[in-house]
Every structure is written in structure tokens, then in C-alpha cells.
Write a structure and sequence with these properties.
The complex is a heterodimer of chains A (177) and B (796). With 177 residues, chain A is mainly beta. Chain A has one domain (34-176). Chain A is built from 2 helices and 11 strands; from the N terminus they run βββααββββββββ. Chain A has a 6-stranded mixed beta sheet with strand order 6-7-3-2-9-10. In chain A, strand 2 (36-44) and strand 3 (49-56) form a beta hairpin. Chain A is globular and about 40 Å long. Among the domains of chain B are: 5-26 and 583-588 and 674-753, Immunoglobulin-like (Sandwich), CATH 2.60.40; 599-612 and 643-665, no CATH class; 758-784. In chain B, the strands form 7 sheets. Chain B has an 8-stranded mixed beta sheet with strand order 7-6-10-4-3-16-20-18. In chain B, strands 19-22-23-24-26-25 form a 6-stranded mixed beta sheet. The longest helix of chain B has 24 residues, at 266-289. The chains are: A mainly beta (177), B alpha+beta (796).
Chain lengths: 177, 796
């Protein structure tokens, strides 16, 4: 088992981001936006994987990628292509905002498997190579916090010992897996 | 595939139950202990009581929209009719615009977010809140020429009366006020203005005048502060409103325009008349052949070219006053801009022609002229079918800065195409859905006047449910976001929930809690628990009972039971009062066969079963050892040779005696020899639900059995049900149509089936490629085929 890791440096402190969202990029015009994401994360000790299916509203995904890239992007119109600009940015987004953190503070690498983006919902599939025991590992989900002040991210964990949920709001600390 | 374990039938037990461990956890405990006691104003049936009352408030308003300063300056005359049995010493009015005061309760109580990665929009909003003051200035409150003392308490204003307003009496008073209009992009809000790059402005004006708070039989004054999430509760009344706006603006509003000759061009008036005439002609033609009128298409009252020309011309310096009248509405909103395109269509609803109209700038084209008004018309027809005939003369959709917000007869909807006029599939369906949703709000809560500030689900949940039905009637497989049970599962599985029955401002995950979950619950109630006919009757009864009245949650719960004749307390308790989820598992299956009555067949079967029993290791090894009875003569007797499974004459005689007493029908029944399969179901999620069971038979045939949720009434954790079939059951599938929001369908099968997670299905699709990869392959193949083939060179 090999783990791809990188340091945590440079992620703290005040960082005003999202200028692009105020500059005429796609309108998010849902009737009453949810401001939530919900993920199911399965830990498969035998495979050494944490497999994640993440559901977002498609508008949020487009708006976030557009914000990050500084131009209008609509991934629903594009098939998944790991080499494309949008999907490379999507993987960067997951690396920064859906973080599995080791006991030593080192991030586990994320592998973007793919996505399905429809009219009604967007699903993103990614996985982490993790040890058979998750003891000491933490999860920190900061998805879409730059987009929406009231964003809430729920992760339903499916672990060998049972199910439990984690909820991440702005300002929340990493939580034990 | 292992076969079910076969055991002799001991008894025909239809449902084997164990005692309930915790009686307090009984999901069938009646809801009466949680619901308010019925009164003379709210009957036990869920209908309005024989002494039901509600207040009436009529408004006459003159308002000026100052385009130069983006301010509202208004004066209103209010007639308040006290229909309550109580004398009132004071009246409470709502000043919603005070939410935009820098020190408002909404601003002060909004929890701060960490100073990490502040969203730019959040920063803009924070700064705007520091500089923008949209609070209301009250310059006059008078009655009969005398000032009335008044006290402003946040978003509410108490007006003290000179003398109590006695039951049955009315009073008239006037209020003058003004406030700045919020810029929607910077400050947010349910209304506001939008500034365009061409220098023009579009106003969507809502919650803009001092409105009476409700005084009702349940809460007294409903004067909970406006904090932003809980919308509003209001009284019905008649409105006459004069709106003075720049002369080159088109103004649209709740109600019917009273002075078209003063504000519209002759061409616009003629086009409107042509739309109405076309509607009448369709109705006339339909009556001749006794059919439903054909559906129309919208026509322009102001064309895109005319709107563009106005928007590009110098701004008017004079004004026009538009006069509107609206009867029996709970609120009044309007929109104004010189950028408006206007289209209209006459829609027949029952015995009334309704004018469906849309107003939008050229930035919304070509999307809006194609879908907005048609979506309004579709909504009116669909919702009227499920509730009551839409009673108002107009229904309006306006495009502007607000993403989606509803008011009587008028709503604001945000989706627009790209600047180049193209639009995505999602934008198209986003527009259709939001128009359906916001126009649908005319029914809930604009006419069925539930208290939004207290119970979000009563309007958003019921409306989202009908939105789902209406979307599905638009086209096959319409991409609805809410309604299908399986879509609510991830939310119901999470730990961070509050029950649907939670105050509007305390909701967690409002979208899932107040929109999606109740909509899904009602869809399940309709499709799985009651069936469409019973549900539709009960739902329509609720809508008609409470049309133009103010229902509370208990009135809905009680009416649905009263009109359907089905005890649904378990359903309300599970879905509306708890945060449990559905996970019912097939825990075990045993097959039972009835022994043949003929002893020759019965004992042969028993012998076969005995012979099939495995030989133990000791028996196998002992078989070769010498035995004493073989060595000593005389030790072996009758019992060493006796086999109880041998057929003896007494068995035959007994069988023949039995057959003499049986009728031919009984004999025929015995010949069929039914198979019995006992299936044990375990409730692992907590919510009890009906059991939808598909039995797969040996021949490949399938039988579906639908068992009401009451099977759980004695034991909510585990039940066993015995099924009788003509053939052996080889497999059992629970919830085969995914209609109960079962969170874990991997335990719904016998024999067990390995079910992949969504992740695994995507990563390892059958055939090795996911649908997108397959589509890409098809595209590549098509591209290759379209390449010109190399042709052999002509012989020289």
C-alpha cells in the first residue's frame, strides 16, 4: 500500500476568495437553494480504501468550478475527462476541501474516479487509500464554503463497525473518522 | 442459489409476533396526545369548526417608486374588521423591511462564520449591511385625524388604539411610510432591484408596506420576528393599489389593472384583447363538441424589439400611475421596469378564463417566451385538478434578480440563458420547475393560508409534492429533484436532523427538511399507503376545506384521516414527528409443505427426508464394527425390524375413512397442496412502513403482496408473515419498486444478493464502461463513420 501525501502548510489564516462569483459568472437560480452536500463514505478495510460518493446540486458544482477557474464552466455539458481543465480543478477542489488527515497532520491523497452530472443532481466519485484501521484519522469537509455562508456538508460514514454521520459547517474543526 | 429450508407445517400462523419491549416506543400510539384538543373553531374532523373565524383587512395604497433614489414612498388606508370574539387594545403590523436595518435581529443573531476563506459574496453582503439601511420610516399613523401611538419592535409595530376594538367592529386608520429598496445582488432579500449593464433597473417589490399581523384562534397575535427563514403569515382582504412609476416603465402586480387606457398603448390593449378573445374562441369551439378547450400559446403584448427600443431610449422624466385591484388576497407585490417584454395566454380553468402572463427583460430570451407562460398555464391546470379551481383572474411570472419567490397572483423567478442566447438543459428545466413551484404557491399558502412563519412544511412541503406531480405531467421522465423516495434516503440516514414538525427558524437543512422530506412522504402516502384514489380525495378535501382559511398542522393530519377513512397516526408520527429512517430487512425465510393425506405418499416423503439426513462420523465408523444382536440369537425381536414409516393396513383404513367424509371440493383442494413460505422481516431503521413483497416462484412467475404497515402494530421490530402459493417460492424481494425510501436495499432479498454501492456501480459498471464512456464511444464511432472513405483512384 502506498499513500500519496502532502503537507498542510499554507491553509490557515484569512483568505478572501471568490471574486469571480461576483463578476457575472453563472447565476444560481434554484427556487430555494439547499446549501447542502451529502456524501456516503464506505470504508473497505480489505481493499484499503475509503470510497466516497458525493451528491451536490449541479448549480453549486458549476458555480464552484467557475469561481475557482475564473470563468463560466458547466460540467454537465462535458463528459468526464480526468485530463480536462474542469476535472483537474475538480480533483484540486476535493484535495483542498474534502480532506482525510492522518494522525501526523499529513493529508491523504485523493483519487477522482469520475462524476455524473444531471439536471437534478451531481454525483462525484473519489477514493482515498487508507489503512485498515482508521484510528487517529480525521476528516475535514469545507466544500462550497466560499460559495455560500450557510453551506452544510454531511458525510454518512459506513464503517465495518456501523454507520454514523459527520456534519461540517463553516468554522468546524476536523472530526475523527 | 440455496433453496429455502423445508420443514413440516406445524400450524397456519399468519403473523408471528413477539411482545413489544418498550410500550412508549409504540409507533402506533395515537397522535391525540400530541395534537391540540379540537375546539369550536377547529373540528375533530380537521375541518374548520362551526365557530371558525378570521380577521379581514382591506388596504387602499398609493405608492411611488422613485427610480432615481430606489425608494418606496407610500401611504395606506387600512380597514380592519375584528371578527374574533376578543376585544383588541392594540394592533400589530409587520414591517418586514426592518430586516434591512443594520442592527436588526436578523443581522445580530446571524451566527458568524470563521474568518477562514470568507466567500466574496458574504464579504460584499457584510459590507453592504454596514452601509445599506432599508429600514422603514413611519411618518404618520392616524385614525380619524388623530395620531395613534405606535411602538416599533424590530420587524413589528404595535399601534395602540384609543379605545378597544370590540368583537364584530371595524376601524379605519392610515399609515405613511418610506424605505430604501435593497439591491438584491449586494444585500439579498426576497425582493429588490437589479441594475443592468445598460444602466436600466428592474424592480421586484415585495413585503414593502406595513401589513397587519394575523390574529387567530390558535396563537392570538402571530408577531414572531421576521428573521429571514420563516416567511410570513397574513390576513385576507381586498386591495386597491395605485403605483406611480416612471412613465416608460411597464408595471405588473397582484390583481387586475383598472386603468389600461391611461398606462398602455392602443396596440398593447388590442393585443391583450386578442389574447382574451382567442381564449374565448377555444372555449366556444370546445363546448360545441363537448371537449376540454385546446391549449393556447402565449402572444406578445410588448415584443422583445419594443422592449429593447424602450431600454435604449432616454429615460422618461414624467410618471404614470397604474391602478390595480385584487380581492380576497393575503398580500400584494409588484414589479416595474422599462426593460420588460410581456407575453400572455388565456387559460381556461373550470368556468373561468385566467390570464397567464410573463414579464422579462431581453436578457431572459429566448428561454422565457418559450417556457414561462406555458409553465404557468400547466401549473394552473394541474394544481386545480388536485385541489380546487384557481380562483384569481391572473397569474404572473416575472424574471429579475430574485431566484424564486411567491406572492398572490405574482411570482419572481431567476433563471436566464447565457449571454449568447443559448442555455443548458439544466437552465431550461430549472426555469420550468421554479415557475411551477412559485405559481403553485398560489395554492399553498396564498389561498390555503397556512402560517409560514411557524410551519414551513405546510406550504413548501405540500407545494413541492404537487410540483413533483405537475413536473411529471410535463413530459416523461421529467428530471424532478424532489419526490422520488430513493432521493431522500441520504438525508434521512444522517444524524443531523430535526423533525419536520419544527419551527421554521429552527430548521436544520431547510431544503431537505421542509421541502423534500414532506413532499416525499406525501408521495409515499399517495402511491404506497393510501393509493391514488383515496389520497387524492383526502388531499382535495383538505384543500377545499381550508381554501381562504388558515389551517394548522393538526387540521391537515385530521382531514387526511377523516376523508380517507384510514388511521394514519403512525405515518404522521414516524415521518413528521421523528427523525427515524426506513430500513426493513428480509431476515429469514422458511418454506413449509403440507403433508399429503394419503399415508403411502406421506410416509414415503418422510422416509426420503430421513434417508437424506447425513450419516454422522460415529455412525459411519461404527457401521463396520460387529454388533451383539448378530452374535446372540434371541436378542433381536419385533422392534428390531419395525419401521414406523412403513405403511400398515390401519393407515390405509384411516385414510379411506377420511376420504369418505370429504366433499369433492375438499378433495380437489387437497390435490393442489399449497406451499407455505414464512418470511421474517426486521425493522432496522425505526420507521414502520408497509411491506411490499415480491415472491419469485419456481416457474419464474412473480406474485406481489402489499401488506399494510399495521403488521408492525404488536411488534415494531420483527414480524413473520406466512405466504401461501401454488408453487414453491425460490426468492423474496422487499420493496421491489423502491417506493418506501428504504435506506439499505442490500438486505431486501432472499437469497441474499450482493448489492453494489453507488460508487462501485460507477467504478465497475457492467460491461466495463460507465454510461458516459459508452456514450463517448458511440460519438467517436459516429465521427469515424462520418469521415469520407478513401476512394480508389479512377483508372487513368
Amino acid at each position: 500500500m502506498s499513500l500519496s501525501r502532502r503537507g498542510l502548510g499554507g491553509l490557515g489564516g484569512l483568505c478572501v476568495v471568490g471574486l469571480a462569483s461576483a463578476l457575472g459568472l453563472p447565476r444560481r437560480a434554484a427556487a430555494h437553494p439547499y446549501h447542502v452536500s451529502i456524501a456516503e463514505a464506505h470504508h473497505r478495510p480489505e481493499a484499503g480504501r475509503l470510497e466516497v460518493s458525493l451528491r451536490l446540486t449541479p448549480e453549486d458544482l458549476d458555480a464552484e468550478l467557475s469561481r475557482r477557474l475564473g470563468k463560466a464552466v458547466s460540467v454537465a455539458e462535458q463528459p468526464f475527462d480526468a485530463r480536462s481543465e474542469a476535472d483537474r480543478e475538480l480533483e484540486r477542489m476535493l484535495r483542498e476541501d474534502f480532506r482525510v488527515i492522518g494522525a501526523d497532520g499529513i493529508l491523504y491523497g485523493v483519487h477522482l474516479v469520475g462524476r455524473e452530472v444531471g439536471v437534478d443532481e451531481a454525483w462525484i466519485y473519489f477514493e482515498f487509500a487508507v489503512p485498515p484501521k482508521l484510528t487517529g484519522l480525521k476528516l475535514h469537509v469545507r466544500l462550497l464554503f466560499e460559495l455560500e455562508v450557510q453551506q452544510e456538508n454531511t458525510v454518512n460514514l459506513v464503517l465495518p463497525e456501523g454507520r454514523r454521520s459527520l456534519l461540517f459547517r463553516r468554522g468546524d474543526e476536523p472530526q475523527a473518522l | 442459489m440455496p433453496g429455502p429450508f423445508v420443514a413440516p407445517l406445524i400450524g397456519l400462523i399468519l403473523a408471528v409476533t413477539n411482545p413489544v419491549v418498550d410500550p412508549l416506543a409504540d409507533p402506533f400510539r395515537q397522535l391525540d396526545e400530541d395534537l391540540p384538543t379540537p375546539t369550536t373553531t377547529r373540528a375533530p374532523s380537521g375541518a374548520p369548526g362551526h365557530r371558525y373565524w378570521q380577521q379581514e383587512v382591506d388596504y387602499r395604497i398609493a405608492v411611488t417608486l422613485d427610480d432615481a433614489t430606489q425608494r418606496i414612498i407610500g401611504s395606506e388606508r387600512i380597514d380592519y374588521q375584528n371578527n374574533s370574539p376578543d376585544g383588541l387594545d392594540y394592533l400589530w403590523l409587520q414591517l418586514d423591511a426592518n430586516i434591512f436595518a443594520p442592527g436588526s435581529a436578523a443581522a445580530l443573531t446571524s451566527t458568524s462564520y470563521a474568518l477562514e476563506r470568507v466567500p466574496f459574496s458574504g464579504l460584499v453582503r457584510m459590507l453592504a449591511r454596514q452601509t445599506f439601511d432599508g429600514s422603514v420610516t413611519i411618518s404618520r399613523v392616524e385614525s380619524k385625524g388623530k395620531a395613534l401611538p405606535h411602538t416599533i419592535v424590530g420587524t413589528m409595530m404595535r399601534v395602540d388604539l384609543a379605545e378597544p376594538l370590540e368583537p364584530g367592529k371595524s376601524m379605519r386608520f392610515e399609515v405613511d411610510w418610506s424605505h430604501a429598496v435593497n439591491e438584491s445582488k449586494r444585500v439579498g432579500g426576497r425582493g429588490g432591484y437589479e441594475r443592468f449593464e445598460d444602466g436600466n433597473t428592474l424592480y421586484e417589490i415585495a413585503q414593502w408596506f406595513p401589513r397587519l399581523a394575523p390574529y387567530d384562534d390558535v396563537n392570538g397575535w402571530q408577531h414572531k420576528a421576521y428573521l429571514g427563514a420563516g416567511e410570513f403569515a397574513l390576513e385576507f382582504g381586498d386591495y386597491e393599489v395605485e403605483i406611480t412609476a416612471p412613465a416608460d416603465h411597464i408595471v405588473t402586480a397582484t390583481g387586475v389593472l383598472q386603468n389600461p387606457k391611461q398606462v398602455l398603448s392602443k396596440a398593447q390593449i388590442d393585443r391583450l384583447k386578442a389574447v382574451e378573445d382567442a381564449g374565448k374562441a377555444r372555449v366556444k369551439a370546445a363546448k360545441k363538441v363537448d371537449e376540454t378547450p385546446k391549449k393556447g400559446t402565449p402572444a406578445f403584448i410588448v415584443t422583445p424589439e419594443e422592449a429593447a427600443q424602450t431600454a435604449a431610449s432616454p429615460k422618461a422624466t414624467d410618471t404614470k400611475t397604474w391602478k390595480f385591484k385584487a380581492d380576497n388576497v393575503r398580500d400584494f407585490a409588484f414589479a416595474s421596469s422599462r426593460k420588460f417584454i410581456w407575453d400572455a395566454e388565456s387559460v381556461r380553468v373550470g368556468e373561468q378564463d385566467v390570464l397567464a402572463m410573463s414579464f422579462y427583460p431581453n436578457e431572459a430570451e429566448p428561454l422565457w417566451s418559450r417556457y414561462s407562460t406555458t409553465a404557468i398555464a400547466h401549473t394552473l391546470r394541474s394544481y386545480s385538478h388536485y385541489t380546487f379551481e384557481y380562483p384569481y383572474p391572473v397569474a404572473i411570472s416575472v424574471n429579475g434578480p430574485v431566484g424564486g419567490m411567491e406572492y398572490p397572483m405574482i411570482c419572481f423567478n431567476g433563471p436566464r440563458p447565457e449571454k449568447d442566447g443559448t442555455y443548458t438543459k439544466r437552465t431550461k428545466y430549472g426555469l420550468i420547475s421554479v415557475v411551477i413551484h412559485e405559481v403553485g404557491h398560489n395554492f399553498f399558502p396564498m389561498i390555503i393560508n397556512s402560517d409560514e412563519r411557524q410551519w414551513t412544511w405546510m406550504d413548501e412541503g405540500l407545494n413541492t409534492f404537487l410540483q413533483f406531480l405537475t413536473e411529471q405531467a410535463w413530459e416523461t421522465d421529467y428530471p424532478s429533484r424532489r419526490g422520488e423516495p430513493e432521493k431522500i434516503v441520504p438525508y434521512m440516514l444522517s444524524d443531523y436532523q430535526v423533525p419536520i414538525m419544527t419551527n421554521a427558524d429552527s430548521l436544520l437543512q431547510k431544503g431537505n427538511n421542509a421541502y423534500a422530506k414532506p413532499a416525499t412522504a406525501l408521495n409515499i402516502l399517495r402511491e404506497t399507503v393510501l393509493g391514488r384514489e383515496l389520497f387524492d380525495h383526502a388531499f382535495r378535501t383538505y384543500a377545499r376545506r381550508w381554501q381562504f382559511k388558515r389551517p394548522m398542522p393538526a387540521d391537515f393530519f385530521r382531514t387526511m384521516e377523516d376523508a380517507s377513512g384510514v388511521d394514519l397516526d403512525w405515518f404522521w408520527r414516524g415521518w413528521f414527528y421523528t427523525t427515524g429512517h426506513v430500513d426493513i430487512a428480509v431476515e429469514g425465510v422458511t418454506a413449509h409443505v403440507m403433508e399429503p393425506l394419503d399415508p403411502r405418499e406421506a410416509k414415503a416423503l418422510q422416509k426420503a427426508e430421513r434417508d437424506a439426513h447425513p450419516v454422522t462420523q460415529s455412525q459411519r465408523r461404527n457401521a463396520e464394527q460387529p454388533k451383539l444382536v448378530d452374535e446372540i440369537e434371541g436378542l433381536s425381536d419385533f422392534y428390531n425390524e419395525y419401521d414406523p414409516l412403513d405403511v400398515v393396513p390401519e393407515d390405509i383404513a384411516s385414510y379411506e375413512r377420511l376420504m369418505k367424509f370429504l366433499s369433492d371440493e375438499d378433495k380437489a383442494l387437497i390435490q393442489k397442496l399449497p406451499h407455505f413460505t414464512a418470511v421474517t422481516f426486521a425493522n432496522r431503521g425505526g420507521l414502520v412502513m408497509p411491506l411490499i413483497v415480491e415472491l419469485e416462484l419456481a416457474s419464474g412467475a412473480r406474485e406481489e403482496v402489499r401488506i399494510p404497515a399495521e403488521i408492525w402494530r404488536r411488534n415494531a421490530e420483527r414480524v413473520t408473515k406466512l405466504f401461501m402459493t401454488a408453487e414453491p417460492v425460490v426468492a423474496v424481494h422487499l420493496d421491489p419498486h423502491l417506493e418506501t425510501a428504504d435506506a439499505d436495499t442490500s438486505n431486501n432479498h432472499y437469497p441474499p444478493q450482493v448489492e453494489s454501492t453507488r460508487f462501485q456501480v460507477y467504478k465497475n459498471p457492467k460491461g466495463g464502461k460507465n454510461p458516459m464512456q459508452q456514450a463517448r464511444d458511440r460519438e467517436t464511432k459516429a465521427t469515424d463513420q462520418s469521415q469520407p472513405e478513401a476512394k480508389p483512384e479512377a483508372a487513368k
